[in-house]
Structure formats: C-alpha cells, structure tokens
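Milestone M4 deliverable, item 7.
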Amino acid sequence: MSTLVVLAESLQHLYHGEPWLDVTFMEHLQDMTAEEAGRRFNTSHNTWELVNHLIFWHQNVTRKLQGEKPEQDGDLPDFYFPENHGENNWQATLHRLEHSITTMAETIRNFPEEKLWTNVPNTQHNTYYYIQGILQHAAYHLGQIVMLHKYAENA
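Output delivered:
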C-alpha cells in the first residue's frame, strides 16, 4: 500500500473510521444539536466554528496540492459562525465537512507519489508536510470538539 493511500485513509478514519486515537468526528458531531454546536465556554471557539475552520483548511490545502489558488471568492471565512444557527444549517455544515474530508482524501490518494517530497508551488514546503499537517490539524481539533461536546452535554 502506498504512503499516500495510508495518509488518505488516516484522514478518513478520523472522520468515521477506526483511528489510532479511538475517537472520530462523527461519533461526536452526528448527535450534536445546532444549539450545542453553537455553545461557547468562556472565550473558546464553539464546535460550529471549529468545523468550519477544518473545512476552510481542507479546501485550502486541497487547492494547493491541485496547483490552484488556496482561497477563492465565495469561500466562507475561517472560523465562520453563521447568523442562522438553525438545525438545517448545522446539518448542512456537517455535510460540508464530510465533503471536504472526502475531497481532501481523494486529493491525497490521487497525488503523484513521485512528487510527495517536492515543494508545493508558491510555498516553502513539500506535499508531505501539508498532508501531515492536515492530519495533525484534524486530530488537534477533534480533541477540542470532544471536550466541547462533553461540556455541552453536561451544561
């Protein structure tokens, strides 16, 4: 199995598989209500903002690896929290997260293995650096979401 396939599967496992961390995004997000997702604790970002932050960076790195402009008109801002905090909007955000993870995983899986260690155009880092960064980033924010979910359930 190629390194890129392993990395792509690692990202997908964080979403809804069996990651080494033994916890997944969907395990904590699928039953979370819009109200819980919007709840803040002190000055923290809320879960909804963290999910949109993940989507923002999945899109950014996907575009970098595809040789496109990282940010595009029409993208939601980083840490976006919508004015409409309704359940339908929360479910739409979860669908966007799933799409961003699927797209990121496919981009990783289909990336030319021979270019894994070459610098991404217009950056100072190679492809492996960005892919590994996406995995670390996802795991970090998954930990935050787990904590926020536990607080929201007990609030």
